[in-house]
Structures are given as structure tokens and as C-alpha cells.
Amino acid sequence: MLKFQPVLPYRCIVLAMHGFQPLLELKTFKVPLTKLYLLPDFQRRGIGTFLIRQLIAQAKALNAPLRLRVLAVNPARRLYEREGFSVQAQIEERIFMEYKVKS
Which parts of the chain are coiled coil (predicted)? Predict the structure, then answer.
């Protein structure tokens, strides 16, 4: 069985004082997918789908969107669309996509 440890999301710590009580809040903004490469011999075997689904599960657990960018000519775009990502923007050859967690 494959074991996968996802990357921690970007976080922001908000610290304030209420009287003499410190208030600490940890906010998660997004789960970024910065790089995912599979060698040709390992493509089309479900490995990419497995990894994307693991990241989606992490995003759901954190109630945070999962964002990525992909080249417009990259066939992996179909994988992302199939798994529920939608195009948010396109700048020249780059496409910015997001998986929005449903509440």
C-alpha cells in the first residue's frame, strides 16, 4: 500500500490580547500543489489520481481550497478537471485551477 504524507498548507497565526488573555488563532488559507511530476513509465497507472485524491482529502479536512497551475498543453489538465478542479484564470500558456471544498 502506498503511504503519502501531504505538504502542510500555508498558515497565518493571528495573535491578539483580550484583557490579560492571549488569543491565538491559526488560519488556513489554501493547500497549494506546487509540483507533481511522474516519469512516463509511471503515468496512466492511477498514481497521479491517487496523489490528487489524497490532497483533496487533506483540503477537505482543513476546509481549504486546493490550488494549482498547469501548462495549457499539459495533458494532466484533464486529470485535474476529472477530479473536480475548475479553471479560475488563464494567462498565456498557464492555467490556474482550484478545487473548492463544499461545506
Answer: none
Using alpha carbons, select from 44, 34, 29 the residue that is nearest to residue 101.
29
Select from 32, 56, 37 the least CA-distant residue to 47: 37
Query: For residues 7 and 36, is the Cβ–Cβ distance under 8 A?
Result: no
The whole-angstrom separation of Cα 49 and Cα 82 is 9
Which domains, ranges and CATH numbers included, belong to the chain?
10-99 (3.40.630.30)
How far does the chain reach from its first CA to its final CA, in angstroms?
30
Nearest CA among 39, 34, 41 for reference residue 7 = 34
pTM of the entire predicted model:
0.68
Q: What is the pLDDT of residues 15-71, one digit of tens each?
A: 444 455 544 444 555 667 778 888 888 888 888 898 899 888 888 888 888 889 999
Residue type at 39? L
What is the grid cell recorded at 41? 513509465
